[in-house]
Every structure is written in C-alpha cells, then in structure tokens.
Amino acid sequence: MKSVYLQKSFLFLWLAQAASGLGGTFATFIISWLVYDLSGSKIAMGMIWISFMVPSLLTNLLAGPYIDRFSYKKMMIFSEWLRAITFIIIGGLLLTNQLPLIVLFIAAMVAGIAEPLFRPASMAYVASILPKENLQRGNSLLEGTMQTMMLIGPALGGLLLSVFGPSLVIFILTFAITFAGILLLFVKNTEQLQSKEKTPWLPMFKEGINFFKMYPVLFWIGILMMIINFSSGAAQPMFLPYVLEHLQGTEFQYGLFMSLFSCGMVFGSLITGFFKQPKNLRFVMLGSLTLGGVCLVFLGLVTNIWVALVISMAQGIFAVMFTINNTTFYQKRVPEKIRGRVFTVRALLAQSGIPIGAGLGGVLAEVYSFSFLFVTLGGLTILATVIAWSSKIFYQLNVPLVEGAVLTDDNLGDGVLHKEAT
Q1: Any alpha helices (H) in 302-333, and if so which ranges?
Q2: How many angstroms separate the first and last alpha carbons of the chain?
Q3: Helix, strand and coil in the chain, % to nearest 5
C-alpha cells in the first residue's frame, strides 16, 4: 500500500474523492428529505431518481466517447464545481423560503449531467497513474475512503438536520464539493497519454462497444448489473419512507440506516484490499450479488429497525466486494487509449435499469406495500444470479490475463488461457 500513498496525484485524488463523497452523500440525503417533506409522495421519491438517471444516461451516451479527448483532470473539476453551483442556488432559495419542488428536480437533472463526467474520468485516471499490480489496492483505498465519508454522511446529515435544519447541511455539502474541485487542481494532467484523434462520435462509441466483443463476459456482467441496478433503483428511493413509515423510525435512524450500508462497504473494502484479487473471481462476484438479493428479501420481511440496520450493513459488504473486483477486472483489460469510452459504455449498460426501477418502485410501494416491493426485488436479483451461476460464460471471470491470449470454447471453463500461435 505504501507505493500507492507515494503517488502525489493519487494522494490528491484520494483526498478530493473523500471530500466529494461527503458532499455527495449530504446531497443525496438532503434532496430526498426535501422532496419527501414538500410532497409526501412515494411516487415523487421515485421521480426524483428518474430526474437524475435519465440525464445521466444521456450524458454517458453523448459525451462518453469524447472523454478520452479531454483532460481527465479538467473533466473531474468541471463535474464537481457544476454540482457546487447548483446547491448554492438551492441554499439561497431555501434561506428565503422560496424553494419550489421543481427546483429540486432541476438540481437532480444537473447532477445527472455532472456525475457521469466524473466517474469514467476518475476510473481512467487512476488506471493511468497506478501500475496494474497496485490497481486492486488503489481501488480498494478509494472505494473504502468514499464509503467512509458515506458512512459519516447520512447519520451526520440526519443529526444536523434535526438540530439545525437543512440550510447547514446544504452549506457543508457545497463547501465539500467545491473543496474537492480545488484539490483536483493539484493532480498532474495526463492529457499526453490520451487520444487526440478527431474521430466522429459514432465511430468512437462503436470502438467502446467493440471492446466487449473481445471479452464477452464483460457484456454479460453489464446485463447482470442492469438487472441488479433495476432492483437497486426501485429500492433506494423508497428507503426514506420505508424507515419512517414501515419501520416507524426517525430521520436520524434513516441516516443511520444509510450509514451502516456504507459501514459495510468500508469493511468490505478493507477485506478486499487486504487480499490479492481472488483466483475464483466468479465465486466472489456472483456470490456477493446473490447474498445482496437475499438481504433485500429480508428487508421486506422485517419490521424492527435494529434488525433492518444489521441487514443494511450486510448489503454494503456484499455490494462493495462485487464493485471493487468488477472495476479491477475492467481496468486490467481495457487499453489505455479507450478507457474512458469503455467505462462509459459499461456505465450506460449497467445503469439503464435504474430509472425504470425508480419509476416502478414508487408505484409498487404506493399501491401495495414495502414488503411486497422488497421481496419482489430481492427475488428478481436472486433469479438473475442463479441463471448467471449456471451460465458457462461467467467462467471467463476466472481466466487469468495473459499477453496475446484468446478466449475459445475449448479453454473457457479450464481457468487458463493459452497464447495464440504465431
């Protein structure tokens, strides 16, 4: 881990993501609370997520292929400061008691435009400054730190909200996101390593898609993530009314519920970062997704807030174990020149299920119950992973990366790739 810390640019990126993680967690918390406070509608809670995800997907689709043309550093700074400006406006309207619901939907749209610029750029940037042997630990450190901020954020946000009101929460998150952009000014610019050709949008986007033909398992991981994210997209907007109504909890307990999810992710990040990437990656990745689905079913069955808190923490552990190993699997296989494009296609494929789930989740919770919603979503997740367990394509997760290797039906299940004859 020492060699990771000695990277100056990685250090500033690490600190920036910590500040951004705290600000982003406060942002998610306060927007959800404000929408529910102003509307009291479960459907509105789902719609705010749609307002975020649809612009996010469109930004991935239209801007993603161009990310490799520009400085990853400038892209990340722009993303942070655009979000900061948005919350400055919200804070001003809130202080004057003139904050309409529509402004929160617009803010979600702006965040949906800004955030997809940051994630692919940061992933590609990390892969460009760290050697491959340090990627697993570097990703674990970044993910663990971000989840630490998310661990602190919801509970702290709930406490500050109950004591001081929403204005202080908005001030802190605006300062944190702005400071993250300032820290990113000190990372080195890797423009010289990035693509400078003036290829039109469509060929560049196709180039990102065509990479998935080299590793078919990446495509099917994306399909699996799309199904999982459909369930997540339906469940996450409902957590606030779930805690307040179904579990008879408070805003602070909702914050604690979200914080313990992040606590689980921190713990899972520490475990994942301590060990090298597992040889049986299929078992770890599919196993963590299956157990995540089981946790979602249990959330639908329990009525005790403290039991739900434990389940939330377990969900975080399983979620981050999949996320870190999946990200590292991509980073080690994607050529440097097209990383931004491939990561964008990956995000587009995986996240396309979220807005559909968000819209449906609010309706199911409103018409039926939270129990029906979470048991159904958990069952869908389990079904998808059971199919993946029985699919031969996912054995490619266990195939080691070998220079000049090719995937064939003959070596697909043996866990070893052989070099192509020349």
Answers
A1: 305-333
A2: 38
A3: 85, 0, 15
pLDDT of residue 324: 82
Q: Which ranges constitute the DSSP H helices of 215-279? A: 216-235, 239-241, 251-274
User: What is the model's pLDDT at position 287?
Assistant: 92
Amino acid at 125: Y
Burial label, 367 (beta-carbon count in 10 A; 0-12, 13-18, 19+): exposed
- Check residue 410 and give its pLDDT: 43
Pair 366, 242: CB distance under 8 Å: no
Residue 405 bridge partners (DSSP): 419
CATH code for residues 2-398: 1.20.1250.20
Give me the count of residues in the chain. 422
pLDDT of 314: 94
The domain locations on the chain are 2-398
- Nearest Cα neighbor of 393 from 285, 301, 296 is 285
> Which 8-state DSSP code applies to residue 352?
T
According to the model, what pLDDT value does residue 266 have? Answer: 77
> Residue 2 has what pLDDT?
47
What's the rounded Cα separation, in Å, for the pair 290 and 384?
9
Consecutive H or E run containing 276: none
In sequence order, the 6+-apart residues with CB closer than 8 A to the CB of 167 are: 91, 94, 95
Instruction: Give the pTM.
Output: 0.71
Place of tokens 């003036």: 198
Which mean pLDDT values do the consecutive 10-residue runs of the chain (422 residues) have? 60 86 83 87 86 81 66 85 92 88 91 80 76 72 74 80 85 91 83 51 67 78 87 88 90 85 82 74 90 95 94 91 81 70 72 83 87 94 93 83 46 39 32
3-class secondary-structure state, position 419 = strand
Q: How many CB atoms lie within 10 A of CB 244?
A: 15
Q: Yes or no: say if 33 and 251 are a contact pair by the CB < 8 Å rule.
A: yes
Contacts of 287 (CB under 8 A, 6+ apart): none
Separation between Cα atoms, residue 218 and residue 224, nearest integer Å = 10
In contact, 314 and 295? CB cutoff 8 Å:
yes
**Rounded to an integer, what distance in angstroms lies between the CA atom of residue 31 and that of residue 24?**
11
For residue 188, which of 76, 272, 113 has the smallest C-alpha distance?
Answer: 76
For residue 138, give the amino acid letter: G
Tokens encoding 416: 């070893």
* Residue with the two structure tokens 């799309």: 226
- Largest alpha-carbon pair distance within the chain? 72
